Amino acid sequence: MTEIPYRGALEIAAAIRNKRLSATQYLEYILSRIEEYDPALNSVITLNTDAALTAARAADQAVTDGTVLGPLHGVPFGLKDIIDAAHLPTTAHSRIYVNNTPIEDAAVTEYLKQSGAILLAKLATHEFAFGGPSFDLPWPPARNPWDTRMFTGGSSSGSGAAVAAGLIPLALGTDTGGSVRNPASLCGIVGMKATYGRVSRRGVIPLAYSLDHVGPMTRTVADNAALLQVVSGHDPRDPASAQIPVPNYLRAVEHGRIDGIKGMRIGVIRHFFEKDMVADPAIVNSINAALHVLADLGAVITDVETQSLQTFSDVNRIILLSEAYAVHQHWLQTRPQDYAEMTREKLLPGAFLRAVDYVQALRNRPMFTAEIDALLDKSDVLITASSMDPPFPIDDPEAVARCYPRSARPPFNLTGHPALSLPIGFTEPDEDVPVLPLGLQVIGRHFDEASVYRVASAYEHATKWNEVYPPHFL
Amino acid sequence: MSHTNVTQELAIQLGLQHLYQLLPEKFHAAIKSAVALSGSQPQPRDPYQEPAHICRFDNLVHPRENS
Known about the structure:
The complex is a heterodimer. By secondary structure, chain A is α/β, with parallel strands linked by helices. Chain A contains 16 helices and eleven strands. Chain A has one domain: Amidase signature (AS) domain (Amidase signature (AS) enzymes), CATH 3.90.1300.10. The relative contact order of chain A is 0.14. Chain B has a domain at 1-39. The termini of chain B are far apart.
């Protein structure tokens, strides 16, 4: 059996259900790990200790009583601290919201509790899911468990760090330009941005209304599918929520693991990371190695082409900056000193974009979506890079500023297609820096997260990268 | 009017005078960044090319329902 801190959520849920593991004992164990390790990681903003222990005891009692149990019964989870949980602060990692305590759960929090999962922690983020790893906020930035000198990626930084370090088996992040997939790539875990509209955004502090997605972050593909299953579905209280049936994602994971991917067509958007933006050789080599694995599993791999990465990213950025400025204008006018310097600087260009820029970007959006749809007419899934560079020092502001544009994630916020970041190995260690994780993206048709999971599951099963853990957090 | 004064005047018009005091040197860079972004995206010319809409009238959530 996997080392206890790195056991998957489904494995833990099964053990609790079968009375091989007590939810309370597991929670106490996880709390002891957080106490021991989080001072080095800064992944937690608020611990929900007392309520979580009460819920764990109730979970154990329900098992004893033979009550019908939810799929994640007794499993602790964390929320990026822009997602509401009733009566706990939602700080957005910001002075602006330091006293913000909602009275209602976000939709996703509500669904997770209904599944039997136990809310344990609110997790660090970049300020309002947009700033960066700032050192001038009430809480320090989260650090990467593979090397705590390194950046986690963001903005779901605490979710990435906590899951990767075995402090919590399940976490939710949010993704407006790549904020689930970036920390997933840099921390070596699985992060899914499902189709826009698949997961309710109700009770989540907005960054950019038409680009925001809530997404699961886990150590395995199966856990990711299980978490997405629980939080997906139509929510009449989210105006962007889609009324599309949710398939059985775990079946897709099993399909990939047992039956494989023979005959599946995979299109590779190679020009994103070899021409439009030249990725670090470690990334390119790892993607090529992953494509060999997928070909060996029977997939048919073909290079495909679309608009340049920069064009996609620019359109996404215009929409993101315009909508984010609309959200933050009042506070930027009245309380600018309460933001981190990095956040103020990143929000400011939104003040100078014109209405016509925003409308033109929205007019470009369906055209770009159709381009990706056309690629997916001929491929079952697409693959491209996630980050263009491996993790780098968190205290290097130039590297931090450079990393946000150096990614191939924003196109799929713009087009709404599901996109998953999958671990594909590690950098070569040297004297000063240990191994650091690398990732790629698998992209699917709208509302076809199942095919994405099938491919990811087959690859994970063949390579077992998910069974390598950060050496200082065992 | 000097370059600095123009930028400061714009900040005042946008209600961002406090922010300008904190980040005077960043305003010019932000304007340049916005102009560059504006020029870099394709400019649709077909008048029938509609924007992507997320706001329909069959799915509006009244603000009172969220309060």
